[in-house]
Each structure stands twice: as C-alpha cells, then as structure tokens.
Design goal:
Number of helices: 5
Number of strands: 2
Pfam family, one: DUF1799
Order of helices and strands: HHHEEHH
Strand content: 5-15%
Strand order of the largest sheet: 1-2
Protein name: DUF1799 domain-containing protein
InterPro entries: Phage_TLS_TfmB
C-alpha cells in the first residue's frame, strides 16, 4: 500500500516515536499517567507500604529514575509534532451519556495548518500516526 507507513520506503526514524508522542499528548489531556510505565518507587510510596504493614527494606528494589516532566521528540519528527499541536483544538467529538467520544481530527483544519506552515504532504501521514495513537488512548479511557 502506497500510503501505509509500514511499507513506506522513506521511513525517517525509529518506529514508534510518533505514536509515543500521540499517546503522551492524549494521556496529558486526560490527566492520566501511562499504565505502560512501571510504578516508580519514591518516598511517598514507601511510606504507604509502611502504613499497610509491608515495609520495603532499603536497597531491596532498585531506585526509580527521576520522573520526566517532558517528552523527547526526535528532530526528524518536529514538523509532524508541531503540526499536530497546531491542530489540537480541531478534534471532532461527540458528547453522549458515556461522556466525550473523540472521533478524530478535522482534516480540513489539518490541511489549513499544513499549508500555513508550509509542510510537505508526507507530514500528513505522520500526523495520522500521532492521531491514531491518541485515539487508542481515548478508547482505553472508555473501557
């Protein structure tokens, strides 16, 4: 398939980085932590275990790395990520009894952002990868 990134001959970076950006964006919108990330053992969590009567011996577990406040974006992915962020208010949503249902980006608005930023057509596929990762997170939230 010509438009399918999996078979695209011009793959510009390691797989998964754009999807990770979409996942990070959607989780931040929902105010949630990533369930795929391991729980970080910090002083507060150690204290909670002590309250429950299950103290953790010092050094029993490896120290958790410091939590990151940001998300690393590879330079090759900046055009797609900045274009996606330029479209972040252009989502089509439906409100129902189950809450807000995220349907996807308004591609007419995406086209305007891309033209205004002078982006190449290939960036659109990258934006779709980010969008799909975000939609996957939003659908997890519905379950």
């Amino acid at each position: 398939m010509a438009g399918d990134r999996r078979g695209h001959p011009r793959r510009r970076g390691p797989p998964g980085k754009l999807k990770a950006a979409g996942r990070a964006w959607a989780l931040s919108r929902l105010g949630r932590a990533d369930s795929r990330e391991p729980v970080r053992l910090d002083a507060d969590l150690i204290h909670q275990f002590e309250i429950l009567g299950a103290p953790i011996a010092p050094g029993a577990l490896p120290a958790a790395p410091a939590a990151s406040e940001g998300f690393e974006v590879m330079p090759v992915n900046w055009p797609a990520v900045t274009a996606f962020l330029g479209c972040e208010t252009q989502w089509r949503c439906a409100a129902g009894l189950a809450g807000l249902i995220w349907l996807g980006l308004d591609y007419g608005a995406v086209d305007v952002v891309m033209r205004r930023c002078g982006l190449a057509d290939e960036v659109f596929t990258d934006i779709q990868l980010i969008e799909q990762a975000a939609l996957d997170v939003f659908s997890e939230d519905m379950s």
